[in-house]
Amino acid sequence: KKIDPETELGVVMALPEEVKDLLLKVGEFPGVLAKTTDSRALHVLAAYLEELASLFDTYYAFSMKTRKVIDMPPEEKAVYAKVFRDVQIVLKKGSSILNMEIPEKM
Prior knowledge:
Helix content is 75%, strand content 0%. By secondary structure, the protein is mainly α. The longest helix has 24 residues, at 42-65.
């Protein structure tokens, strides 16, 4: 379901700090790729992916104790779905570059 940009912005502004941290970390991906490519240092990408996965895990564990996404209003649920999808895309792309496979489900 599409939501209007103004509503989406309001939801994003009200996100918990843990989710904002995830968004900021996802936004670092292009720079990490450039640094990895320029320096030919794959460990930079590996460390970034580990940190992103750890941030997501921390948020997920916290959210299971507080407010589950499934119980949120549709507008909030849509924003969270985008954030989680972005994290998933970055983890998949980064892992692929490192020639690692990650499972779809645990």
